[in-house]
Design a protein that fits this description.
fold of a uncharacterized protein from magnetospirillum magneticum, 0% strand
Length: 202
């Protein structure tokens, strides 16, 4: 199974949801073009991500770095210096590009809810969506029950953090407008897939 996150569904997303404060730290390191020694100092020694163990800090730093590295410095600056809403949507954009399992769920399932005027998403449709993912990428069928449960938990948490749903408990859909500077970035950088996945409630 290839590890290219842009071509297949991958399980790396289970390592964390949007991680907004942590992503601001990683964006700063990326903008500073930090070398590996500086990364180690910040993540492990200084524990800027405020994790309980060096292993947890390194795991989440790697996840965030893999997400943000798919985007350009203009998005990193938005994450570091933008408003909370702008930073949240910018991180969501990078997360969608890194994890098509999130993007496809938004584009294929949540979009359909809006088109049919439904008010809440359903865990049943999540399960059906995962079955279609397994058809595209059979290796997903080998993921453990724990990984699959965590995957669902993280995806729904991301939807709540980015205000596409009210809470992970209610699963009530909320209308979302893409913040102008985020939309401008996505259009300028030809991020058509990401923009389509985010623009599902219009």
């Amino acid at each position: 199974m290839t590890e290219d996150p842009l071509q297949i569904y991958n399980g790396e997303i289970v390592a964390g949801s949007l991680l907004i404060p942590e992503s601001r730290h990683i964006a700063r390191l990326l903008m500073a073009n930090a070398d590996e020694d500086t990364w180690h100092q910040a993540i492990v020694i200084d524990n800027v991500l405020q994790k309980r163990s060096p292993a947890a800090a390194k795991r989440q730093a790697k996840l965030i770095r893999n997400r943000l590295s798919l985007m350009t410095p203009a998005l990193w600056e938005m994450i570091d210096q933008g408003s909370n809403d702008a930073a949240t949507q910018a991180i969501l954009a990078a997360t969608i590009k890194h994890s098509h399992i999130l993007g496809d769920f938004m584009d294929q399932v949540i979009r359909r809810y809006w088109q049919t005027f439904a008010t809440h998403i359903s865990t049943t449709d999540w399960n059906a969506f995962i079955e279609t993912c397994i058809q595209k990428e059979p290796a997903i069928g080998t993921w453990t029950d724990t990984t699959m449960a965590k995957l669902k938990q993280v995806v729904f948490r991301i939807l709540a953090e980015s205000k596409y749903i009210d809470t992970t408990r209610s699963l009530k859909l909320l209308p979302v407008s893409i913040i102008p500077e985020v939309k401008k970035y996505l259009v300028k950088n030809s991020e058509e897939y990401v923009l389509r996945c985010m623009n599902i409630t219009q």
